[in-house]
């Protein structure tokens, strides 16, 4: 007996910001890869079966607005629980995999959270200036990949939390917090001029942004 298992995932569209459920038969994918678009027309993902029991994904990242290649074991899609997969550049959550029925239930309940944002999202309305926000993120991720976003405590467990007008960089080890403004051309120019960022365990300030903050995270 054959069980028509599905590769199901939920991800956010980079164009419209909506959460989209994608469910494709693994057996159908054996006949060739398939590209999937959002109902709005935006590109979402291309799925291909690879050797060794893996599924290859080419995903349009709603964070970086670039294509990423991600490989996931097929076993992840057959388990009874959902598992998040992340952006390889920022380590922020891009989507959720799991059984189609479970993902539908979680979508209906509104408890799927991606990039710290829950439910469907109009990116144009959420961010004060979406274009500035994504350019600031791009530069921060570029610095992060080069090892130039650090904390003075010496640990590298940093996470990025996105708000309408800023990116908070938080050290999970010592608790230091650095808010990076991301809503104006001046904010973008400041970030693009950075050579590095360092979270100070006492001052909560970058090494060369020229601004101090009180280190308190706004609600």
Computed Rg = 19 Å
Helix content: 10-25%
Number of helices: 6
Question: How would you describe the shape?
Answer: globular
Average the pLDDT over all residues and give the rounded result: 78
Give the number of domains.
Answer: 2
The number of strands is: 15
Task: Tell me the fraction of residues in β-strands, as a range.
Answer: 25-35%
**First-last Cα distance:** 54 Å
Q: Can you walk me through this structure?
A:
With 219 residues, the chain is α+β, with helices and mostly antiparallel strands. The protein folds into two domains: 6-121, no CATH class; 127-199, no CATH class. 21% of the residues lie in helices and 34% in strands. The protein has a four-stranded antiparallel β-sheet with strand order 2-1-8-7. A hairpin with a 3-residue loop joins strand 4 and strand 5. Helix 5 packs parallel to helix 6 (185-192). It is globular, with a radius of gyration of 19 Å. 27% of the residues are buried. The model is unreliable at 202-219 (pLDDT under 50).
């Amino acid at each position: 007996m054959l069980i028509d298992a599905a590769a199901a995932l939920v991800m956010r569209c980079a164009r419209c910001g909506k959460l989209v459920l994608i469910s494709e038969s693994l057996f159908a994918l054996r006949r060739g890869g398939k590209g999937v678009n959002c109902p709005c027309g935006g590109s979402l993902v291309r799925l291909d079966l690879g050797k060794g029991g893996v599924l290859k994904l080419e995903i349009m990242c709603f964070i970086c607005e670039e294509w990423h290649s991600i490989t996931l074991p097929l076993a992840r899609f057959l388990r009874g629980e959902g598992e998040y997969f992340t952006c390889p550049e920022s380590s922020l959550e891009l989507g959720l995999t799991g059984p189609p029925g479970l993902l539908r239930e979680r979508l209906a309940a509104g408890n799927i959270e991606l990039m710290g944002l829950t439910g469907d999202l109009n990116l144009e309305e959420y961010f004060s200036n979406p274009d500035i926000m994504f350019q600031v993120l791009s530069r921060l991720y570029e610095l992060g990949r080069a090892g130039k976003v650090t904390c003075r405590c010496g640990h590298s467990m940093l996470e990025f939390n996105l708000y309408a007008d800023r990116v908070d960089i938080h050290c999970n080890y010592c608790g230091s917090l650095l808010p990076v403004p991301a809503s104006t051309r001046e904010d973008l120019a400041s970030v693009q001029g950075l050579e590095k960022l360092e979270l100070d365990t006492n001052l909560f300030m970058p090494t060369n942004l020229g601004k101090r903050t009180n280190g308190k995270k706004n609600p």
